Amino acid sequence: MTKIDAIGRKILQELSRDGRISNLELAERVGLSPSACLRRVQDLERSGVIKGYRAVLDPAKLGLTFMAYVAVGLSTHTKKAQGDFEAAMAEAAEVRECHNITGTIEYLLRIETADLAAYKHFHTEVLGVLPQVHSITTYVLMESPKDERA
Question: What is the pTM of this model?
């Protein structure tokens, strides 16, 4: 585990809010010289704390107005069943996140589709045909008052 001091945490906080911030602006916000700030950011990148930088997209502007979390239970718990399920989810464009979790179900998916009809197609023609899927429970998002995925 990488040890991160208070300045490192400030850098991470600022970058998670705005990954396109200039090094000069970042240095000012965290109280370092630009060269020291750049060195710190590069150290965080090299150590793997910063895995990458991404654009945060607006699903509605892309025509993806239906969002849901889907809890999926598997009928078998073998490595093959899990591997096959994960491979299918990696190929499904509707799946934005796939998490293997503990509890009464095995996977939690975050889904984005154009509408309910598109979700129904995903539910029946993608998830519903997988032999290892035992249960599917859908939780439709109404709004996201806080969303800090970085």
Answer: 0.83
In 3D, which of 95, 103, 102, 97 has the Cα closest to residue 130?
A: 95
DSSP states of 16-62: HH-TT--HHHHHHHHT--HHHHHHHHHHHHHTTSS----PPP-GGGG
pLDDT digits (tens, 9 = 90+) for 141-150: 999 899 887 5
Residue with tokens 């154009």: 114
Q: From the options 3.50.50.60, 3.30.70.20, 3.30.70.920, 3.90.220.20, give the CATH code of 59-140.
A: 3.30.70.920
Burial class (CB in 10 A: 0-12, 13-18, 19+), 9: exposed
